[in-house]
Structure formats: C-alpha cells, structure tokens
Design brief:
It contains 20 helices and 19 strands. By secondary structure, it is α+β, with helices and mostly antiparallel strands. The strands form four sheets. Strands 12, 13, 14, 15, 16, 17, 18 and 19 form an eight-stranded antiparallel sheet that branches. Strands 5-6-10-8-9 form a five-stranded antiparallel sheet. Strand 8 and strand 9 (201-205) form a beta hairpin. Helix 2 (28-38) runs antiparallel to helix 4 (73-86) and helix 8 packs antiparallel against helix 14.
Length: 543
C-alpha cells in the first residue's frame, strides 16, 4: 500500500461531521448501473444518505459516492464486478456498530455495500448440527429462529446483536454470549461463501466440498481462515455455516466485589481456566458507574426489565433483582459478574460452588448478581449505550492477552490513564475498563473513554429517539477528541509492544506493526491474489 495512503489512515482524523458530499460527476453512470442491478430504492445517493454511511459509531473519514444494498448473492456479485471495472472501491457494512473505522471510507471514489438485505436462514440442520445463514442476518434474528428448535450457536452474539450481523462478527471477530466457554465468533464458522473483488462467488471451508454437506471446516488447507477476522479486506461475506449445540436449560448467576484489579483478574482467570463461566466480565468503578448503574431508565422501563427477568429466570430471580435495586454497585471499586450454565441442575450447582470457592480465595466478597440476570433476560437491546449515561461520546479500545499477562497489562493501562490525568481533567474525559474471559485461554481488556462532545449524525438513526431526548446535548470539543485519539493510539502501541492481540481490527489497530515481517509480507501477497486492484475495503488491516 502506498505510504501516503497508510499515513492518512493512521493519522487522527476529526471525529465530528463527515465531509460535505462532492458532486457525483463522472460517477453518475456507475450509480445508474448499480440502480439497474438492485433497484433504484436500494441504491442511495442523496447527500443525507451519503453522510450517514460516512460515519461509524465514533468518527468519519471520506464520504462515499453511494450506498448499495443487494438482496441476493447474484446482485452482490454483479455490484462487485461493475465497481471493480470502474476502479471504485467497495466497502462492506453490516449492522454499523464498528468504532475502529471498519467500514469507513479512505477513498472518495468508493461505495458502501450495505449487507442487511441478505438475511435468509438457509438451513437449520438438526441432524448434523449446523446452520447456514446469509451474512446480513442479525444475531437476534438467528437466535430467535434457533431457540424455537432448542438450538443455538456456541457463541451466540454480541450485546449489540439486535443490529449486529453474522458477517460483521466474522469480519471483525467478536466475543460475548457463550464466549467464556466457546471462544470468539470466528471459531464457530465451518463454511463460508464470499464475493471477491471481481465478482467471483468463492466457496470456502465446508462450502467448498463438491458433493457433500458443510458439516466440517478442515478438508485440506484452511483457505477460509484468510477471510475470517479480515475486517472485510479480502472479500465480502455472503453466506456462513456455523456449528450448533443444544441450548442449556440450567443457569445460575454470581457476582463478587474486589478491592483491586489484580484480585479480580485472578478470579476471572481462575474461572476461565476451569471452564466454569459461559460469560464472565469485570468492571472497574469508572466503567461500572457508566454502564451498570445507569440512572437514566424510566420507571416504566425498570418494570419491563423486571418482567423479562421473571419470564426468563423465574420469580425468584425477579425478586433478587428487585430487592438489590441499582445502588449496591455505587461503592464497589471492582465488580465481577458471571453467568454459569450446564445441562443439569446438579451440574450447574457444582460449577456454582466451585466458582464461589475461586472468588473467595481471590479475596472477593459476594454481592447481588443482578447484572447477568438482566443481560440474559434481555440479551439484545437497542444500541443506546453508544452514548454515555450523561450524553457523552464513548469509544473503547481493547486487547486480548494470556492469563499470565492480564494483571500486568491492566496495571499498564492504569498507568497510562494516570499519565494523562491533567489532560483528562481539563477536558472532562472519564476512563474505565471492562474485562472479559475468552474460552480457557484468553483475557480481554477493554479500556473505554467518555467525554462531552457533539453528537454524530448517525446517532439520530440508530438510537431510540425517546432515549436521545433524555440525554444532555454537548458542544463540539475538538481538543478533547484529539486527546482521546492520542490515548487510544498510545494504548494500541502498548498492545503491540506487549505482544497482545485484538479483534475488530478495522483500520485502527497497528496490525502491520504487530505481525512479524514475514507474516505481513505473505498477507500482502494474498491480498494481491484476491484483490489485485486493492478495491475491497482499502485500508482495512492497513492493507
């Protein structure tokens, strides 16, 4: 990739309004062709549409020419072929929940490919335990369809699954529901069909078998791996096949308070290594106050949540949540929240007992387990949390490390926060972090930033109007924005130095510097094979 393009992508860009759309000019003919392929209403090129598709949940770069929404794999293939011949970049977009520039544009001559019309659940195979689904299907839609058959995918979606789509999680990688036991999103994928830059429809993994079912990923070299966690740089995901398991019928919840981050990290690692928690997450006081005890809910919403808890876990769970209220976390410096599941009541009880022993040995004190009860009662909620509880802008950054490094990296994150204390105070920037375990091998550390700043245009579309109306509106603060960008970049550099890995790479993380030179050179060669003109999501993975 040319040096000037690379420096553009890594240079902090304004996090405010995107650039005013330029006239379509010589590209009007291309827009007309795209409308012939997908229908006029599915190719949006108004100024408002172009500005909306120029933003993710954090910032904007270039403004696209248009957004096109194919409804079939054939339409997607034809869109790719037409844009490739015109030398116009294609940038795939799923549910729009990225904050790492994943679907932002680095070229003005580019088109957003909105994947959200590709939503078919093609096959739920109960005999062979897999599901084949178009990649624009949301995790909430997929979970609902599978729940009717008492099935689920092992990892079954992110918290943003009401909008986030299967293809987005496979492109950016993702963790949350089920990740404590089964790892990240890409580990569940056994077959994939992608559309390459020139329009070629390419089967991979289980989809590549000539006369068989897509029941197994590995049959010879794993060529599918190149297209997973690729930030959409290698091709556009059209259809995926994921593993299935039976839904677990028994679940228990626990929560513990800790005096230090190191103590909490030790408990999380202990649960992870023993394979106890379906989901295990920890908050420091900064993140806990912002997310876990939001005082912005109305009384009506509180009752609605309580009824969902009762419906999901029974009257006892509902009473526990109601009695605990929300104030119990106010003075908790570090809080850990865990969901434990098993096929039998006896099994989940044994795991629960073992978990309590691990937490107690790490110095934890038990507290009400409301958080995971509420999350499981209503797992996929509107993305209102892309603004903070006081209307602040919000953005995270993260890394995944082995358990042995977790406490040390948390301390270094806290050290970086401390170095910026004066800047944070000047611009009213609040920080915190979230910790999540991944399988029995990974420890995710997610520093987060909140600061008062002007809203992005996309918030008006993706957030609920009634929630937005309750939040304060802040004036633009470019200096605070720049400070947050610098802190995020410093953290990304720290993660590279410490040998950590990340997901949701987009165009933000220093992926080119994180790989050994030989590995980076091979990846560039593979990009040249599947996308010689470099028109698929330019800048993703720093390619």
């Amino acid at each position: 990739m040319p040096d000037d393009n690379r420096s553009f992508i890594s240079t902090p860009a304004p996090a405010g309004a995107p650039k005013i759309p330029a006239p379509l000019g010589p590209h009007q003919g291309l827009i007309d062709q795209l409308r012939q392929i997908v229908g006029a209403e599915q190719c949006r090129a108004s100024d408002d549409d172009r500005l909306f598709y120029a933003e993710d949940t954090y910032r904007s770069l270039e403004t696209p020419l248009a957004a096109v929404a194919p409804g079939t794999i054939d339409e997607l293939s034809r869109v790719a072929a037409v844009c490739n011949r015109a030398g116009v970049a294609l940038v795939p977009r799923g549910g729009g929940m990225s904050y790492t520039d994943g679907y932002l544009h680095t070229r003005s001559a580019s088109v957003t490919v909105d994947m959200r019309r590709l939503t078919k659940i093609i096959e739920i195979n109960e005999a062979d335990m897999y599901v084949t689904v178009e990649c624009g299907c949301t995790w909430a839609e997929l979970n609902t369809a599978l729940k009717a058959k008492n099935l689920r995918t092992p990892y079954w979606g992110p918290l943003s699954g009401l909008r986030s789509v299967v293809g987005g999680a496979l492109s950016q990688n993702s963790v949350f529901f089920g990740s404590g036991l089964y790892g990240s999103a890409v580990e569940q994928c056994i077959g994939l069909t992608v559309v390459l830059a020139d329009g070629t429809v390419q089967p991979l993994g289980g989809h590549a078998i000539q006369n068989g079912k897509p029941f197994m990923k590995h049959y010879g070299p794993d060529m599918m791996g190149l297209f997973l966690a690729d930030a959409g740089a290698m091709g556009m995901k059209a259809v995926a096949t994921l593993r299935l398991i039976r839904r677990t019928e028994h679940r228990k919840h626990l929560a513990y308070a800790f005096a230090s981050a190191a103590d909490m990290a030790g408990a999380l690692s202990g649960l992870s290594r023993e394979g106890i928690a379906a989901e295990a997450m920890g908050f420091d006081a900064g993140q806990q106050s912002a997310r876990a005890v939001e005082a912005t809910r109305s009384l009506k919403e509180d009752f609605a949540t309580l009824f969902k808890v009762i419906d999901n876990g029974g009257l006892i769970d509902g009473l526990k949540v109601a009695l605990a209220g929300r104030g119990y976390l106010k003075d908790v410096p570090y809080g850990m929240h865990v969901a434990i599941e098993d096929k039998t009541a006896e099994g989940v009880a044994a795991l629960f007992k073992k978990a309590r022993g691990i937490c107690k040995a790490a110095g934890g004190k038990p507290m009400p387990a409301s958080i995971t009860r509420i999350v499981h009662a209503d797992p996929f909620v509107p993305p209102d949390s892309i603004l903070g509880p006081k209307g602040e802008r919000w953005v995270p950054v993260h890394c995944i490390v082995p358990h042995s490094q977790a406490a040390d990296i948390i301390a270094k994150v806290q050290g970086l926060y401390a170095r910026y204390e004066a800047v944070k105070a000047k611009h009213n920037i609040r920080t915190g972090f979230l910790l999540v375990t991944v399988g029995n091998y990974g420890f995710l550390i997610e520093p987060v930033f909140f600061w008062p700043d002007a809203r992005l245009k996309m918030y008006d579309t993706v957030m609920r109007p009634e929630h937005l109306a309750r939040l304060p509106v802040h004036a633009a603060d470019e200096a605070a924005r720049a400070a947050v960008l610098q802190m995020r970049d410093d953290l990304a550099s720290l993660f590279v130095q410490e040998g950590a890995v990340s997901m949701q790479l987009g165009k933000f993380y220093h992926f080119d510097k994180a790989l050994k030179p030989e590995a980076w050179a091979l990846l560039q060669k593979m990009k040249s094979v599947v996308d010689p003109a470099r028109v698929v999501n330019p800048g993703a993975l720093k390619l």
